[in-house]
Design a protein that fits this description.
elongated
């Protein structure tokens, strides 16, 4: 089969292959801007990211339901798809990156305050720039780490259930 035909015949996952994926990073942007905006903006960014995570989990559950039709164990497989997606996305898209950017920004603001005589607004904007520029560098390591974590823990439980059926 021609690689171009194969590529075009693959189904596009709206939550992973389109711009919608960036909604999962909304909270990192919110954390980067924490020094400059009201805290309600930051919490709003977490709401957007959590909505993305939930929508992706529901989507994967629906796809698992369709894929398994009326086969025995369908409910379990749908539950596994939803839980696995939700836990992975919550850790890799919201919890760990949000914490990381929060700490990078807090540390940056503190160090800039101790090591420079820059005015506070300049330090806050610099902190925001540092936080935003950190985001692309943390995505892949966090994704790989969450894969490893789930493969070493929760996914072993799923695989044990599959063996007992």
């Amino acid at each position: 089969m021609d690689p171009i035909e194969e590529k075009s015949s693959k189904t596009v996952d709206i939550y992973r292959d389109t711009w919608v994926r960036f909604l999962g990073y909304a909270n990192e942007v919110g954390e980067a801007f924490r020094a400059l905006v009201p805290v309600s903006f930051v919490w709003g960014s977490y709401a957007v990211a959590t909505a993305y995570v939930t929508a992706d989990a529901v989507d994967k559950g629906k796809k698992a339901a369709v894929a398994h039709g009326d086969n025995p164990g369908k409910t379990t497989r749908v539950a596994v798809a939803v839980v696995d997606t939700f836990v992975w996305q919550a850790l890799a898209s919201v919890i760990i990156p949000g914490f990381t950017i929060n700490r990078v920004c807090a540390g940056s603001l503190y160090l800039l305050g101790k090591s420079t005589k820059w005015p506070l607004p300049v330090r806050k904007w610099t902190t925001t720039a540092i936080g935003l520029s950190t985001i692309p560098f943390i995505i892949s390591p966090i994704d790989r780490s969450v894969d490893y974590l789930l493969d070493s823990s929760l996914r072993k439980v799923y695989n044990e259930e599959e063996k007992h059926k």
